[in-house]
From TrEMBL:
PANTHER family: NEURALIZED (PTHR12429), NEURALIZED-LIKE PROTEIN 2 (PTHR12429:SF8). Pathway: Protein modification; protein ubiquitination. The gene is NEURL2. Residues 242-277 form the SOCS box domain. CDD domains: SPRY_NHR_like (cd12887). Residues 8-236 form the NHR domain. SUPFAM superfamilies: SOCS box-like. GO terms for molecular function: ubiquitin protein ligase activity. Pfam families: Neuralized, SOCS_box. Gene3D superfamilies: 2.60.120.920. PROSITE patterns: NHR, SOCS. InterPro entries: B30.2/SPRY_sf, Neuralized, NHR_dom, SOCS_box, SOCS_box-like_dom_sf. This is Neuralized E3 ubiquitin protein ligase 2. It comes from the Eukaryota.
Length: 277
């Protein structure tokens, strides 16, 4: 199921007391303490639609990191936004939240037989999938296909950015590092149920929650907790890439690294788009 999506992602005006949103409601900063940093997506997510954020700022001295998930509770109906997503929001019911750690974010299935079946099914699916230009540029989760272009974090342009970019691509850096990109989505599993998946720098961590009822709208939950101080939403393109994106990909295929753009005779705006986006 290639999602026919593309709504502009924003944070909901209802959020934790320590959260400050920018004017576009695409950046959330926790301005005090380490808690009361819960944010929600403005609109419910569609099946296969990812709510993706990038860690922009961190704050030393706190234990714990970003938490992400889904809730069937309409933020507008909350009497008060809980102090913590875990356990407070989850304990209210109809919410599923996953704590991002420096390590061990991959979900391990308990049922060995089911694991073997999934591996076999995955291999068969991979074998049957048509080989095309787009195959390696998309993340496949069940029957959902998401462009990888925006899913992977990128370092700040600088002397060693070509090395850091490769570390983001291979998930060698901690998921909690600055510039890491973390997203949440759900995929339909049978009639009326779904699994929640967490994606870290373009890699699916597996089904972190199963059997989520889909008879109610599901909102993304982003808890800007503890060492994570600020996140921004990354807009993801679905379907055919824009002309801008195709142009950038064509240019990047012919250079060693994006910082080499400085030596090309290109308009400054195009250089910046290729380097920073």
């Amino acid at each position: 199921m290639a999602a026919v999506l593309g709504q502009f992602m924003e944070f909901h005006p209802v959020h934790g007391t320590n959260v400050q949103l920018d004017l576009c409601r695409t950046r959330a900063t926790r301005v005090e303490s380490f808690a009361n940093g819960i944010c929600f997506s403005k609109h419910p997510l569609n099946p296969g639609e990812i709510f993706l954020v990038e860690i922009e700022e961190k704050e030393l001295g706190w234990c714990g990191h970003l938490r992400v998930g889904l809730t069937a509770r309409d933020p507008q109906t909350l009497e008060m936004v809980p102090e913590y997503s875990l356990p407070d929001l989850v304990d209210q019911g109809e919410s599923w939240v996953f704590a991002i750690t420096r390590n061990h974010n991959k979900v391990i299935e308990d049922d060995t037989h089911e694991e073997v079946e999934q591996v076999v099914d995955g291999r068969n699916e991979e074998r049957n999938r048509p080989k095309s230009f787009f195959t390696d540029t998309h993340l496949h989760i069940e029957n959902v296909c998401i462009p990888k272009d925006k899913l992977v974090g990128r370092s700040r342009p600088g002397r060693f950015s070509h090395i850091l970019d490769d570390l983001y691509k291979t998930n060698a850096l901690p998921p909690t590092a600055r510039r890491s990109r973390i997203g949440v989505l759900y995929v339909l599993k049978g009639q009326g149920f779904a699994d929640m998946h967490i994606v870290i720098n373009g890699e699916d961590m597996g089904a972190s929650a199963k059997g989520i009822p889909t008879n109610q709208p599901l909102y993304a939950v982003i808890d800007v907790f503890a060492a994570t101080k600020c996140v921004r939403i990354v807009q993801v393109e679905y379907g055919f890439a824009s002309l801008q994106t195709l142009c950038r990909k064509t240019i990047q295929k012919h250079i060693v690294h994006r910082m080499a753009l400085d030596w090309l005779e290109l308009p400054e705006l195009l250089k910046n788009f290729c380097k920073y986006e």
